[in-house]
Design brief:
The protein is mainly alpha-helical. The protein contains 23 helices and seven strands.
Length: 579
């Protein structure tokens, strides 16, 4: 028998694949999903190869060559995310957003560090999903996501520059953006012109192919296969020095078999240093996967389960490293392609994964002939499409605070690394939120001429007795606005006998505001005065009750309406005169 907690956890994790067993899934639906899965598998093939190559720095010790890591990730994560996810049409796998953080982790902690960080990120994602934090990811401010998305695009272009230009050097290109630019400038004389021309031709094919009306076959596949056939038949690898996957990673760059299971040797002493990178992977994975699911909802008129999606992403990231995989998440471009090609259920994503597995089993040996420049061209086009370039043009029209957050996050992503960018960007966004909340909250004096709200709250025409001061707080009464309360009290000068605080327009209150309110009441009580609170909503009232504040201010001084507050104020004045 399930306990209540287990039942709630089960309700939080319900894969959309289970919907197929309710009935209504026809043979026509299966046919559409199979065709969509085959098409998306072809789209994902060059991306998986390119992302694997781009994510592993030269000389890094990994169990398999970099291209294999990318395609293993697409097979394992793609299947798990579709089978267990909260979206019907989500396509998962390696994405370009992870490239900077993967390079950073491998450079500082090696491949073992990447495996541990990926597993830790998976655990974080599962906790987020089971804690129903899926909806909270949507509240990450747009300037932060836009800033690091565009920063990642620039960072990807920088990492692909050497392969695209055909620069070969015994000295590996540095990871840092500014150092890499210097390195490219210093090694520009080693540029291979045929490689550059081949890369430009591949970019042109990827860009122009959809405009020819040939959208059923992805342009990246056409560019990769075309470049591979030309280089192999013309012998340009030897004659013109064009580097291929085989010449760079060895003839067995992708083993012809199922992704092998390997239990890595964890170094538990690294856990503390990997908390930051693992959190960055989890946040990136959550943001990108849920954004992709939202895009898919718009295309299919469906609604995804964000918490189930996070749990599925977490499971995929825990399992992938044991099959020599990289971090994975939902991919917007592949998900959109899935929908546009007829995918309507998780079966399409599972077929996409099986298509990639079939490619490994049948055609892995031909991967050695794929030019590295073609893979760089694929990633350059991915970077160009993912960057929020139009937002950079609008910086001058944005509110200054938003523009500062966006630019700061962008520059930190490009110049330093994604971990720092996400951390600083979130702190800046929090400060921005506090500032805006405090700006929307008003503390103002109420006079008899004011016209407000409903009859029982109406001030106009109601005499305020001498010795009574009335103030109104409008908006959330939180720590960013508590200082306004203190400033208003400082401006009073001589304290009146009774202070009425009208709180019927305060929807929320926190501990800092409660402390400010307590200071005002203590000040009045010390001078023999009385503070009356009128119109408290449920959340502020519950907070006052739990803090033992009701007894401190006196239960008769908590009233429902302004009319009641005036009656109570006259009673207090009468008691003072009688005393």
């Amino acid at each position: 028998m399930n306990t209540p907690s287990n039942s709630r956890a089960t309700q939080r994790f319900r894969p959309r694949l289970l919907d197929l067993f309710r009935g209504g899934y026809t043979r026509e639906d299966l046919g559409g999903d199979v065709m969509a899965g085959l098409t998306v598998g072809l789209i994902a093939l060059p991306l998986a190869l390119a992302l694997g190559i781009a994510s592993v720095p030269s000389g890094a010790e990994t169990p398999f060559p970099a291209p294999a890591l990318g395609i293993f990730t697409a097979v394992i994560a793609g299947f798990l995310i579709s089978a267990l996810g909260g979206s019907r049409v989500q396509i998962g796998g390696p994405t370009a957003a992870f490239i900077p953080i993967i390079l950073l982790i491998i450079e500082q902690h090696g491949y073992v560090g990447l495996v541990m960080a990926t597993v830790m990120a998976g655990v974080i994602l599962i906790i987020m999903g089971l804690s129903r934090m899926g909806s909270l990811i949507k509240f990450i401010p747009w300037p932060v996501t836009s800033g690091f998305t565009t920063g990642i695009a620039v960072a990807i272009m920088a990492t692909q520059s050497a392969d695209f230009l055909g620069i070969r050097s015994s000295e590996p290109a540095p990871r840092e953006f500014l150092h890499r630019l210097t390195w490219i400038y210093e090694h520009g004389n080693l540029m291979n012109l045929p490689t550059l021309l081949l890369g430009i031709a591949c970019v042109a094919v990827i860009f122009l192919w959809p405009r020819l009306g040939l959208k059923r076959i992805p342009g990246s596949i056409v560019a990769m296969l075309g470049a591979t056939v030309v280089v192999a038949l013309m012998g340009w690898q030897q004659g013109l020095g064009i580097e291929t996957i085989g010449s760079k990673f060895g003839g067995n760059a992708i083993p012809a078999g199922f992704p092998p299971f390997q239990f890595p040797a964890f170094d538990w002493g690294m856990v503390r240093n990997l908390i930051g990178p693992a959190t960055a992977i989890a946040l990136l994975g959550a943001i990108e996967s849920l954004l992709s699911a939202v895009v898919a909802d718009g295309l299919t008129s469906d609604r995804h389960d964000s918490n189930t999606e996070l749990v599925a992403q977490g499971i995929a990231n825990i399992v992938c490293p044991f099959f020599c995989g990289l971090p994975a998440t939902g991919a917007i471009a592949r998900t959109s392609a899935n929908v546009n090609n007829g995918g309507r259920s998780p079966v399409a994503g599972m077929v996409h994964s099986l298509t990639l597995l079939a490619v490994i089993l049948l055609f892995a040996r031909w991967a050695a002939f794929v030019p590295v420049a073609a893979m760089s061209a694929v990633l350059l086009m991915v970077a160009l499409r993912m960057g929020e370039w139009h937002e950079m043009k609008r910086l001058a029209m944005m509110p200054r605070s938003d523009a500062i957050v966006l630019l700061t996050t962008f520059l930190l992503t490009v110049i330093f690394d994604l971990v720092i960018a996400v951390e600083v960007g979130m702190v800046l966004a929090a400060i921005l939120f506090i500032k805006r909340v405090s700006e929307t909250t008003e503390v103002s004096r109420v006079r008899e001429s004011d016209v407000l709200e409903s009859p029982e709250q109406l001030v106009h025409g109601k005499e305020i007795p001498e010795g009574v001061l009335v103030y109104r707080i409008f908006g959330p009464f939180l720590f960013g606005a508590a200082e306004k309360m203190e400033d208003a009290m400082e401006r009073i000068g001589t304290l009146p006998r009774v202070l009425i605080l009208r709180l019927h327009l305060v929807t929320a209150m926190d501990a800092t505001a409660l402390n400010a309110l307590e200071s005002v009441i203590e000040r009045f009580q010390h001078h023999g005065g009385t503070v009356i609170l009128s119109g408290l909503h449920r959340q502020p009232l519950d907070m006052l009750r739990k803090a033992g504040f009701v007894e401190k201010i006196g239960r008769p001084n908590l009233v429902a309406h302004y009319d009641d507050a005036l009656v109570r104020a006259r009673e207090c004045l009468a008691d003072t005169q009688a005393g």
